[in-house]
Every structure is written in structure tokens, then in C-alpha cells.
Amino acid sequence: MQIFTKIEALKAFLKQKRANKQTIGLVPTMGALHAGHLFLVESSKAENQVTVGTVYVNPTQFNNASDLDKYPRSIDSDMELLEKGGCDALFYPDNQEMYAKTSTVKIEFGDLDKILEGKFRPGHFSGVALVVSKLFNIVQPDVAYFGQKDFQQFKIIEKLVAELKFNLQLKQMPIFREPDGLAMSSRNTRLNEEARKKAVVFFQSLTEAKKLLKQGEKIARVREIVKQKCEAIEGVKLEYFELTNTENLKPVESVTDKTVLLIAGFVGEVRLIDNLLTNEN
Ligand code: AMP
Fold it and tell me: Which of 5, 71, 176, 249 is the most buried (most CB within 10 A)?
């Protein structure tokens, strides 16, 4: 695996690959890699001749300085995992390389960036869109791979690609989970043993909610049950729990084959998100 910290060096490497008619898959990450990330790499490898993984903790998508400060970083093991996973190139830039001067560009998405994650993390999606746009321009991939774990983020990136006419295909990969159901996340490494056990409540809430809704329970009652379930555990704070349409993420009253349950909350000071499509078993 070749490691690049400079944009121009990575571009030169990829220019050569493109000249040889090799297709390029991009897997953007913030590092502290787990099996979910590695599946994105595996998927890219299966469909492209060249896979570029990126590890960059993007400051503009953090609305909370302590969250940015405490975001897990483990570049040595990330490099090892990417190498073992067969990644061809790693792009690992610093802030100077990505944002030479203070960033002034803001990207808005109408209603989509004001709800759910956007409501609780103002400016988050503008930062995501900015860094993803930079990565798309630098790498010019044929295909870019993202996870369903960040459900709203994928919708935002779909809009970004469609409206700014990025010439690439987007693929969304399923959520990888721990054996008890907790969605894999870099942030899980910040949970101590006790908090780790509590964290599964978000997945359990989603599965219970789905079951109740399918049995015909009203969403208002389900919301109450989820709230109580989460708040019964010390240190767990529910931020939101919603049943929405899978396309525009607007709240809906009942499950269809185009609805998704989304949840976010804190275990101690660690913020976690998860979601569950209602049309899957
Ligand atoms: P992150 O490093 O958390 O920004 O995530 C990088 C990419 O990996 C994003 O497209 C995420 O949606 C995806 N991802 C994160 N967690 C998971 C997971 N548990 N399963 C599948 N993909 C994931």
C-alpha cells in the first residue's frame, strides 16, 4: 500500500492509474477502523482495480471542540488493517493540506441538513459535504463507498453528487454490528466496560420499536416506550428517535417498505447513532 500525505503526489499516482484505464474506488473514513470500514474496502476492491482509503478527522464537521479532541485516532493500526485489507493507497493528509486557510465555504441542503443529526449538530453536514467534495475532486473516483450507519449522511452526499454533478457512482453498504447488536463505531472505543454494556440499548430500542410498529402500535406510544427504556439506564440520554421516510427523512406515522427508524443519544459523554430499515427482517 502506498501512503500519501500530499494531494499532488496522490493525484500523480492516480493519473497514472487512470491512464492505464484502471477504475478507482474511494473509501473515505475518519480512522480508528473496524470491520464495517474494512467491508467498504473489500467492496471497493471487488469492483475496482484501485482502492483509495482515506483517514482524516475532518474538523469542520465537528460542532463540539471536545468531541473533535477526543475522537479516537489510531493511525498505526489503521495502516496495518488497510494494508492487510488490500487497500492500494492511503491518503492521510493533515489540516494544513486539506484547509490551507480558514474555511469559508458553507453548503446547505434545504430541509435535509436541519433535521435529525443536523438539528443536534449544527453545521455538521456542511463540514461533511465540504470534505467529501474535496476528496471527490482530489481522487476523482469512479465509485465512492459509504455505510448505511450514517443514513442521513448518505442522503446528503447523494444530493451533493446529483446537484454538483460529480461524475461518480455512490454505493451504500450495510451496517456492521457487534455480536450483541451494537453498531460498530470508532466512538465505541471510548466506552468503558460498563458503558459498552449500556450502549446496546439503542439497537435494542430500534428492534423493539420495529416489532411494536409492525404489530400496529402507534408511533407516539412507541416513542414513549423507547424514551423510558433509554432513560431507565443511568448515564444514557436519548437525543432523538424517529420513524421517517427513507428518501426525504420526514417523520411518518406508520411503517411501510420505505421507512427507517433512526436513533441518537449519549452513553456518558460518548454520542452514538444507529438506524434500522423497517422492511428488513
Ligand atoms: P467514519 O470513519 O465513522 O466517518 O465512517 C467512515 C465510513 O464508514 C462511513 O461511510 C460510515 O458510514 C461507514 N461506517 C461506519 N460505521 C459503520 C458500520 N458499523 N458498518 C458499516 N459502515 C460503517
Answer: 249
